[in-house]
Amino acid sequence: MKRAVLHEMLKTEITLETPPNAQRGLKWLASQADHFAPWIVTSILAMMGMLGIVKAYYKPLWLDEIMGVLIAKVPLRSDIWAICKAGVDNQPPLYHYAMRSSIQFFGNDALGTRVPSLVGYLLFSLCLYWFVSRRASRLYGVAAMLFPWTTRCWYYATEGRPYGLMLGCAGIAAVCWQSIVMRRRRGLMLAGLCLSLTCALNLHYYAVLLFVPFGIAEAVRTYRQRKWDIPVWIALAAPLLVLLAYLPVIRAAKANTGIPYAPFARANLPVTVWYFAADFLQSSLVPLICLGVLYFVVQIYSRPSSTAQLARAAVAKRLELIPEAFLVLGFTCFPVFAALLSRFVTHIFFSRYAIGGIFGFALLLGFCAWLAFGDQKEPALALVAIFAVLVLHDRIFDDYRTLLGDRANPARVGIPQRIHGRAQVDGLPIVATNLDDYMGFYYYGDSAFRKRVFYVSSEELAKQYLGFTFHERMMIGSAPYFGTQVVDYNKFVGEHPRFYVFGTLQFSEWVVPKLMADGAELRLVQGGPINTDGGFADVCLLAQMPGKPSPVNDK
């Protein structure tokens, strides 16, 4: 009986097709989603904005943010220029003035320094949607907008640094330039293009790289039109005058800081590009992005296979997109431009300097999907759904779990408690061996705790053990303005024969190796297992300099 049933099943041709009703339902859903895309975008931005505000409030400030807050809160406004010239921070002075006003407005350091970045990031997301949806489907614009939220780019939305604001300026500039190409509100868009690029240069010196993709795209547009659009070139060139005002600050900061040839910041083109991909994306995505660039270029210049009339219309539409295509490709190559600038000019590179590349990757994704599927709504809806699920999982759920921990253990309590209880109760001085720990203890500790925590410095020893001195110069240069306890190593060990040493034994710490070379007796008070990064967890040592008696109760 079973064999007969099986025989009949094999004789029957079975086709798996989507039921007509389901097909109609999917098309209706896709069409409605495209129609209501602006409302979808508004809802997503509102939801992520609320999450960002909560995250900005509870997330502990780290070294660069603490330095930015302390610079913004110096008593005299003129001190900000002096601090920038001293090489304490590498941002333009106007950025610190903006943070000063923001902190005064919010009355809270964390919100004041982070909310501007969140606003800039939301504007950047909105501009992504706008830029793509004007040429392609609205749903592809939503997909392009969601893509950066699946990367580490979202971290800088609540980072008290200028990168979120710089992305917002880049997005506004791109939309303004696109409007000029499309002949929409030319006068207003010229002003917006010039103003947004000027603001970007006042936020971060590496914003000068924004002029590369815009310059390439406008040069292509000039070539195709066979004439110069002088007002556009003026709008692109005028913001560069800002750098002339900052040249004295840049030169003084470079002289005071020195060329930071730190091993972790050396600029090498292949290494830095791969480092950027590993930090923001996944290294395995690099070949996929390269294939996407190739596909994008081929599709822009290829003739679609369809009827003659449709082919002419499609070709005309794609040829019209050529200047914008070069802008997309320019932003996609942003990490390469940042690596070259770092290699031959600044001699220092951090992956966040090339964050503009995320703008190019998101645009590339939106346009490649549109070129692949055309005006079909179903693939666009599927792409949006995939990214929405990733955003919900990677951003909201992960951030929510992190926020629960930050709320349960506030930084003002948790960060000083990293030091072992014995060291906290004892009255001996505490040396923080790296500036990240020291600035955290200084900012979150009370006045009594601050008086006990020291940062010992020595340019000679830092150069001997680490090979670079810009950390030492930053701490020495900022001490007169912040009131931090930065003391020369030899002076400190001469005045304090016994003290606690707290650190994580990173590659950027030289105090413990120097103490061992000087014959100091180091007793472990607190220690942890090796972590996933290959370093140690918090380590607290009791240091006894040679030639001094050790009390018997120090076991």
Features of the shown structure:
globular, 5% strand, 555 residues, single chain, 66% helix, 2 domains, mainly alpha, six-stranded mixed beta sheet, disordered N terminus
Short description, anyone?
The protein has 28 helices and six strands.
**Proportion of strand residues:** 5-15%
Structure class:
mainly alpha
Any idea what the radius of gyration is? 28 Å
Shape: globular
Which helices and strands appear, and what pairs or packs with what?
Elements: H1 2-11, H2 20-35, H3 37-58, H4 63-72, H5 78-85, H6 93-106, H7 109-133, H8 138-146, H9 163-181, H10 186-201, H11 211-225, H12 230-237, H13 241-257, H14 269-280, H15 285-301, H16 308-320, H17 322-332, H18 334-346, H19 356-373, H20 377-408, H21 411-414, H22 421-425, E1 430-432, H23 435-444, H24 447-452, E2 453-457, H25 459-465, H26 470-482, E3 486-488, H27 489-495, E4 498-503, H28 511-517, E5 521-526, E6 539-544
Please give a structural write-up:
With 555 residues, the protein is mainly alpha-helical. The chain folds into two domains: 29-266 and 375-405, no CATH class; 414-544, no CATH class. Helices cover 66% and strands 5% of the residues. The protein contains 28 helices and six strands. It has helices spanning 2-11, 20-35, 37-58, 63-72, 78-85, 93-106, 109-133, 138-146, 163-181, 186-201, 211-225, 230-237, 241-257, 269-280, 285-301, 308-320, 322-332, 334-346, 356-373, 377-408, 411-414, 421-425, 435-444, 447-452, 459-465, 470-482, 489-495, 511-517, and strands at 430-432, 453-457, 486-488, 498-503, 521-526, 539-544. Strands 3-2-1-4-6-5 form a six-stranded mixed sheet, with helices on both faces.
